[in-house]
Amino acid sequence: MTISFDGLDLLTSAVLICNDDGDIVFANTAAESLLDCSVRLLKQQSLRDVFLNPGELLAVFEQAKQHMFADKRLDLSLERSAKDVLHVRAIVTPLDDPATPVLIELHQNEQQLKLDQEERMLDQNRANKELIRNLAHEIKNPLGGIRGAAQLLELELPERQLRELREYTQVIIKEADRLQTLVDRLLAPHRVPHIVGDVNIHEVCERVRSLMMAEFPQGLTIQRDYDLSIPEFRGDKEQLIQSVLNIAHNAAQALSERIKQGDALLVIKTRVARQITLAKVRHKLALDLHIIDNGPGIPPEIKNRMFYPLVSGREGGSGLGLTLAQTFVAQHMGVIECESRAGLTDFRILIPLP
C-alpha cells in the first residue's frame, strides 16, 4: 500500500521524508522554498547531497531508524553552500513504515538564534565590564608600589652597583609603566564621558578609511558601499570611529598574507535595517554597518570568545580591540554580530536610528 503525504504540503514548516539510506522520498512545498530547490530535484538527492555538513543530522537519523526515541529536537546550522547557511530547529521523528522510516521537520529560527546570541552578548558585555574593573584595580594598586620600590632602589644603590644594576631596575620601571598603560586602556571606556552629538556615519567611515589607507597604502583595496539616505543620529563620534577602526584594523592584520600578494579586500557597507530587536527593544530603523574582509576567517578556537578582554587571534595582540568596540557600540544601545568562514568575515554593527 502506498502512503500519501500530500497533506503535508499544507504545513508551513519544511518536511523531508527519507528512506533507509537517507534518500529523500518526499519533500513538501515549504521544503522547496526553504532549500531553494524544486521538489523534483530534492527527490533525486539524499541528505548528504542536500547539505554540506549533514553529520549531526545523519547521526540522529540513524538513531531514529532504530526507534531510540519518539522524536528528537535539535538546533542545527546546515550549510547549503559556502555562502548559504540555514539555522534551523530540526524535529526528527521515526515512522513505522520500513520504506520511509524517518520524517524530518525543519523550522527556520534565525530570529530566535539572534535573540539568544544578543542576550549572550549583553551578559558577556556586563561580565566583561565587571571583570575589567576588578582586574584593573587589582593590578593598579600594587603596580605603583612596585614602580616606586624600583625607583627607591636606584637611589639607594652605591654608584658602582648602580652602573651594573640600573639595567634591571629600568626593566622593572618600564614594565610597570607598560602595565599601567594597559590598565588605563582597560578602564578608559568606563570612565571617559560619553560625548553626545549629531553623527553622520559616513563621516565616521571615511575617517576610518583614510586612516587605514595611510597605514596600508599598498596591497589592500578598501571598497565603499554606502546608503547615503541614512539619517544622522545622536552619538559619540570618536567612540564610533574607534569601534570601526578597531574592527577594520583587526581585519587588515588578518589579511597580512593577502596584502603581500596584493589581493586583500576590505568592504565598508552601510544600510538601513527595519524592524530590528536590539537589547529586547523593537526599533523601526537601525543603522546596519558591515566591515567585510576576504581573509582566512576567525580561528574556531576563539570564535565564541573573541569579544572577551585579552583574547587575541594573533601573536602579540592585546586582545582589547574588539572588547572596546563592543563596549562603545553597547553604549549606543547597539550590538556587534559576526559571521566568519574562510574567505569571508563580516562584522555587523547595529545601532538604533531615530
Describe the structure.
- With 354 residues, the chain is α+β, with helices and mostly antiparallel strands.
- It folds into three domains: 10-108, Beta-Lactamase (2-Layer Sandwich), CATH 3.30.450; 113-191; 197-352, Histidine kinase-like ATPase, C-terminal domain (Heat Shock Protein 90, 2-Layer Sandwich).
- It is 44% helix and 26% strand.
- It has ten helices and twelve strands.
- The chain has helices spanning 29-35, 39-42, 47-50, 55-65, 110-156, 159-191, 201-215, 237-254, 256-261, 321-330, and strands at 14-18, 24-27, 72-81, 84-94, 102-108, 197-199, 220-225, 233-235, 264-278, 281-293, 335-341, 344-352.
- It has a five-stranded antiparallel β-sheet.
- Strand 9 and strand 10 (281-293) form a beta hairpin.
- It starts with 13 loop residues before the first strand and ends with a strand.
- Residues 134-354 form the Histidine kinase domain.
- InterPro entries: HATPase_C_sf, HATPase_dom, His_kinase_dom, HisK_dim/P_dom, HisK_dim/P_sf, PAS, PAS-like_dom_sf, PAS_fold.
- It is an enzyme of class 2 (transferase).
